Amino acid sequence: MQRKLRMGMIGGGKDAFIGAVHRLAANMDGLIELTAGALSVNPEVGYESGKMLFLPDNRIYKNYEEMLHAESKLPADEKIDFVTIVTPNFAHFAPAMLALDLGFNVVIEKPMTLTLEEAKQLDTKVKETGLTLCLTHTYSGYPMVKQAKQMISEGVLGEVRKIIVEYPQGWLSTLSEREGNAQAAWRTDPSKTGKSGSMGDIGTHAAHLAEYISGLKINKICADLSIVVPGRAIDDDGNVLLKFDNGSNGVLIASQVAAGEENALKIKIYGEKGGLEWHQMEPNTLIVKWLNQPAQIYRTGNGYIGSFAKHNTRTPGGHPEGYLEAFANIYRNFALTIDAKLNNQKPTDEMLDFPNTEDGIRGMAFIENVVNSSNSDQKWWDYKI
Amino acid sequence: MQRKLRMGMIGGGKDAFIGAVHRLAANMDGLIELTAGALSVNPEVGYESGKMLFLPDNRIYKNYEEMLHAESKLPADEKIDFVTIVTPNFAHFAPAMLALDLGFNVVIEKPMTLTLEEAKQLDTKVKETGLTLCLTHTYSGYPMVKQAKQMISEGVLGEVRKIIVEYPQGWLSTLSEREGNAQAAWRTDPSKTGKSGSMGDIGTHAAHLAEYISGLKINKICADLSIVVPGRAIDDDGNVLLKFDNGSNGVLIASQVAAGEENALKIKIYGEKGGLEWHQMEPNTLIVKWLNQPAQIYRTGNGYIGSFAKHNTRTPGGHPEGYLEAFANIYRNFALTIDAKLNNQKPTDEMLDFPNTEDGIRGMAFIENVVNSSNSDQKWWDYKI
Amino acid sequence: MQRKLRMGMIGGGKDAFIGAVHRLAANMDGLIELTAGALSVNPEVGYESGKMLFLPDNRIYKNYEEMLHAESKLPADEKIDFVTIVTPNFAHFAPAMLALDLGFNVVIEKPMTLTLEEAKQLDTKVKETGLTLCLTHTYSGYPMVKQAKQMISEGVLGEVRKIIVEYPQGWLSTLSEREGNAQAAWRTDPSKTGKSGSMGDIGTHAAHLAEYISGLKINKICADLSIVVPGRAIDDDGNVLLKFDNGSNGVLIASQVAAGEENALKIKIYGEKGGLEWHQMEPNTLIVKWLNQPAQIYRTGNGYIGSFAKHNTRTPGGHPEGYLEAFANIYRNFALTIDAKLNNQKPTDEMLDFPNTEDGIRGMAFIENVVNSSNSDQKWWDYKI
Amino acid sequence: MQRKLRMGMIGGGKDAFIGAVHRLAANMDGLIELTAGALSVNPEVGYESGKMLFLPDNRIYKNYEEMLHAESKLPADEKIDFVTIVTPNFAHFAPAMLALDLGFNVVIEKPMTLTLEEAKQLDTKVKETGLTLCLTHTYSGYPMVKQAKQMISEGVLGEVRKIIVEYPQGWLSTLSEREGNAQAAWRTDPSKTGKSGSMGDIGTHAAHLAEYISGLKINKICADLSIVVPGRAIDDDGNVLLKFDNGSNGVLIASQVAAGEENALKIKIYGEKGGLEWHQMEPNTLIVKWLNQPAQIYRTGNGYIGSFAKHNTRTPGGHPEGYLEAFANIYRNFALTIDAKLNNQKPTDEMLDFPNTEDGIRGMAFIENVVNSSNSDQKWWDYKI
Predict the structure, then answer these.
(1) Where is the GFO/IDH/MocA-like oxidoreductase domain (chains A, B, C, D) (predicted)?
(2) Which residues of chain A have pLDDT under 50?
């Protein structure tokens, strides 16, 4: 790269959780600089947040429309290269569409939109504009997730037969949305979070992980969503039986009321010859199990690791990378792709390996199908997209 | 106890897997001696097996009928106190009924019978005779399983909200029943194993464990059984959504084609205040998770452990007990109960804590309901017993 | 075997810890029966203990001399085949010598004697009599310990370069010998336990494990023993630098005041090509690490396991065996060896793989050398035997 | 902070390992910008490296002298605030002294200098100038290390009794310094790395960690350094017995030839009431063991965590932070301290919690004392500083 890319941020004011994570991830590799921001629906909070992030006054905007229009008129060597949208789910679509219309590439927090319909429109817009949209399904940024995907695609497990993915969290075990927890408040409000709570917030991650690693697509489900905590307005827990397009079966469990769990996303994939197991909370380890040989412990940063994991690792074996590095991998690959396109080069497969609108459509489809399946008395629900 | 109890074994000749396990478990505490045997359908194998076990010639029988009738005529201070039935599933019911009719207590390998109907008849017979029947759901014999049960019954987790129990094995990942594996042969033959393969062999253990620890009863299910290995005659894999009688939900996964897995039974139970996690392959540890406090690592053999776990532990903390000790706990409690009854004493709750015909009925009901649910297009299947 | 071997026990009355463990181990495989006992220095306790173990009155003896003399006069098909000595350390030597003199084989709890000199005399006596003596260094009975030994002897690690063995316990963190803890009382009394507390009780296990697995011999040490708990009469903690006879180095740590530890014996052995790691508290797993390949998880009961581990395993993979099974392996191999000798057959290498007087001498030498080294200002202490 | 701090880097050109790590750590929080660099002794490599890092031509310097003199003449709102020295050990002292003389704060990779004498001079210079020097002992930047320190300082373990710290790596298991491995080459060359290989490179980290967490100081040692790989010019392995200033004992093990190990730094500290265990490769977990209660699993990002760990954490529980975040904590605290001083404010205790010249002196003293002890026949070597 010749220069750092310039980022404008929509949402992510002080005290927001995921906005800060995006900045940490974007900062890490020194390829991106935060240049502009419309950081809050409250202009005062937005200004204060911008100052804390060392933005000059003239790059702190009152709202995203102002930012996008103003930045679009700046000279090419000043204006932002892309926007990052880290608002609650309901406020993803409009700024993303406007950004694309005005020629900006887009990073967007998952789930991509509030509805499947919006997701499809966004996909169409991306294809029309030729711009790049990156969806931050963080967990696919981990090197050992990429290692798992690469090993399966190379056939080391044979045909995939079964996938178990579980994502238990405990942070909504009480009615914290009524106790002043702002994160809980919007994430349990259907008007802001969408049709499902547990499945929108974390189930989509689990579904994405299963499809990303296995290379398969879910095509039938049988879902059971629950409101476990009395008084909550939206599901906080769900269990889903899965069928994949190669005929294999699976289970997806997502819960926000698994008391005592932190963020315990785990996946196990079994094939004809062996199985893989990965735990997000110990992300640098991938256990590979074999039918008649000892299981193996694959670890990031070692010489035997494949090209995709290697491209997404910064440190030698035993120097643990974590969630922020996984997130940074997505930003780095996005940045390298943008840079390649700016320079009329073809991005490598490794660079292009970040979630995009197709993943976003599948994520929204997952939410809608799971909700519909859960509401149905029919056992198997054919996936509709 | 005044003397060792005398055991007669039905099945379990040389090369049988589970018969050897029963003998190890019965031997361990020195409370039981193997006194007689009808160890094989093949009398030569039976005789040879008896000699290897140091049985005198006159206590090695050609078949179970011969043994039960002959033993019933021996003097009280010579004849066996109980029989252990370790034949394949289809050959549990008849010897158990005859043994009870002739006045012998019974230990029986799970699943208790071939059908639910047989299970009910056996239960009736036990109640009529006043004799004791013990069903060897091994995993409920582990001290930390009992600790989990005791903690939940004492309310430390509050109301139970969610149960995830998974039981992956990989030993049937190939069509080994066609390659001379005798264990695989009968366990995949519906005439010998019953209506379900994966659910009869291991799913019943998982269901028993969930109900045993939680104190809840499954009352609705949605099951998806599969024959994963082409050419197999019976399911080797299944995923089941669960509803319990307190309204909580759960998932049960049992697979014999999870390539690379050994015997990886795990259970997680979440309540209002925290959660419990137990892994059979590291059985001396129970992780107890809390909403706002550090998780705790409960370990067998420590002073802070409850009365049930304590009663079922032989060694101090850090001296691992395993599968055979869990099995031996069931035999020991059965023996202590028999002894108490022989001496007109009331067994303690700890002694009585072994699976019985009620568990056997629930196990057979589980199999039948899961098969019926799997065959149905209806989403939720009401448990029928 | 044609019949069970008959065991006479010296020590191990009710409430004794290690005597009960020996009985569980001897019982398990059904190859040994407890036939006689001199179970306590207190004849009343001895009698009561014998009755609890279902011994007939005429085989419950007042003391070991009475038992050994009486048994030696019984007919061959009645008298005991061997004695097991489970008294405190100071009371090992005399009964062992008498038993050998009267023609009985011997099992003896470690450390073998009170002094190195006694150990040498016992070794001489064993060689003179041609009888078999078995020393219960339990940890060498674990299958994965045997697997480690076999792999190293086959050269998979190349030359061994470094050994780290640590054995932390916490049970003597307070002055419990003054609070009525009988185990603590004799084990911290130099007249009963010998010259060292921590090294006699657990350091010898660690040293034996290191030499057993590696096939190397310690030949230089630098020891630092401490009395950590004020008021204690003997060391409760020690750290030792090691040199082995191939020039490699090592560290041995044994502590009884590592508060919060149970029985956390661990060993790591590094060679030119890789390393091995084994933890006693998760004994069915052996981690094998490689220079440029993923580490492997060797597990008991799998097909890829070597002949020694296989011979010492009762259950399939994933059915955990533990401390009692490791102990039972020592008894079983001892019994198979005795039986082979009784039948003028040559025991296999696998049968003979139990600790003997040579290990006992090395154990006592370890204690004496460590104490001498600790008392010396000289850095390296040449091992004297 | 009002603005980002400006960093000049000495060393760390392309292909250098630790320079890249420093940049990632400095970038992450958006508080520091790389403004200038003298990135290589080879000016061409330095220029190319500077361009890859987007430095303007006039801030890419040929050598550190040029950079420091030129920057010192720039206006206050342009010139760098501090330099980061990431050269091999022998090239730390001179640039650090010049930087301080010219008024720049300093970050310096460990070990601080080549000799203890240099360390003392640097400490004197820092005190004379009133500037801030930060030594990057990375591992003290981990939140759970800080949690351990805070818990011990608050007395939860009672008096500390024993410390076991081990740091096994395997990367020097072969003579890779002769095979073109540049990292191996300088780290095994005494003229560039200093008096000890294993102890300078990793033993100092282990010693720092032990003293940092426990609050104790090593005051006596007995060291055994080895050259394990034939042909190597400097020790690659060492074992050290420790005595601390409160009379407690310990063991420190550092090895670069522990084949198959990555970067497996672990520490266990035992006190009167319990113990702590932390593993660098799973850094978000701190196990706290208790005498008579279940062990606890402390985890980063939870509400029950102390002020120091909290200040050094960016993500909620279950979103793992790693090595780079630990490193970034050191940079952030250094930056916050510099900023506070620039604004005549008093840094908080949390901000000031990064290693400084006192740690640097102790690190160099550790190396020299260990080497001297290893060369001595005397058992205990009194620490000399």
Answers:
(1) 145-277
(2) none
> Which H/E stretch holds residue D186?
helix D182-187
C-alpha distance from A254 to closest chain C C-alpha (Å): 28
Regarding whether C147 and C124 lie in a shared domain, the answer is no
Which of A296, A299, A300, A305 is most worth mutating to test chain C (most C CB atoms within 10 A of its CB)? A296
| Confidence label for D150 from pLDDT (cuts 50, 70 and 90) | very high
Clarify whether residues C307 and C162 are in a common domain.
yes
Which residues in A lie closer than 8 A to residue B226 (C-beta atoms)? 249
Write down which residue in C131, C159, C193 finishes a domain: C131
Residue C346 falls within a domain, yes or no? no
The CATH number that applies at residue C41 is: 3.40.50.720
Report yes or no on C326 lying in a domain.
no
Q: Is the dihedral of CA D352, D353, D354, D360 positive or negative?
A: positive
Residue A380 lies in a domain: no
Contacts of A315 in chain D (CB under 8 A): 21, 322-324
- Domain-ending residue, one of B94, B110, B131: B131
Q: How far apart (Å, rounded) are the C-alpha atoms in residues B110 and B187?
A: 13
Are residues A296 and C292, on separate chains, in Cβ contact within 8 Å? no
Residue ranges with strand state E in chain B = 5-10, 32-38, 82-85, 105-108, 133-135, 160-168, 218-226, 237-244, 249-255, 266-271, 274-279, 285-290, 295-299, 381-382
Element (H, E) at D250: strand D249-255
For residues A220 and A199, is the Cβ–Cβ distance under 8 A? no
Chain A closest CA to C288's CA: distance in Å? 9
Residue D350 pLDDT exceeds 90 = yes
D82, D203: one domain: no
What are the distances in angstroms from CA D243 to CA A348, C373, D202, D204, D240?
A: 56, 17, 19, 16, 10
Name residues 263-282 of chain C within 8 A of B (Cβ).
263-264, 280-282
Q: Judge if A166 and A282 occupy the same domain.
A: yes
Nearest CA in chain B to D300: B294
Provide the token pair at D206: 């282990």
Query: Do both C102 and C150 map to the same domain?
Result: no
Interhelix angle A204-214/A357-375, nearest 10 degrees: 120
- Find out whether A168 and A128 touch, Cβ atoms under 8 Å: no
Distance from CA of D166 to the nearest CA of C (A): 10
Residues C149 and C45 in one domain: no
User: Which CATH number fits the domain that encloses residue A173?
Assistant: 3.30.360.10
Chain C closest-CA separation from residue A355 CA (Å): 29
Chains that touch D (3 or more CB pairs under 8 A): A, B, C
Q: Which residue from B357, B351, D171, B22 is spatially nearest to C275, judged by alpha carbons?
A: D171
Q: What is the pLDDT of residues D118-142, one digit of tens each?
A: 999 999 999 999 999 999 999 999 9
- Both D210 and D153 in a single domain? yes
- Tens digits of residue pLDDT in C142-168: 999 999 999 999 999 999 999 999 999
Which pairing describes strands D82-85 and D5-10: parallel, antiparallel, or unpaired?
parallel
Residue B127 lies in a domain: yes
Contact list, C170 vs chain D (CB under 8 Å): 270, 275, 289, 291
Residues B165 and B301 in one domain: yes
User: Which amino acid, residue A358?
Assistant: E
Nearest to A303 among C288, C292, C304 (CB): C292
Joined together, the tokens standing for residue D245 give: 């200033």
How far does D168 lie from chain C, in Å, by closest CA?
A: 10
Q: Which domain holds residue C30?
A: 5-131
Give the containing element (helix H, strand E) for C237: strand C237-244
**C window 293-332, beta carbon within 8 A of D:** 295
pLDDT, residue A155, reads 98
Say if the Cβ atoms of D275 and C295 lie within 8 Å.
no
Which among B173, B274, B377 has CB closest to A291? B173
Report the number of distinct structural domains present in chain A: 2
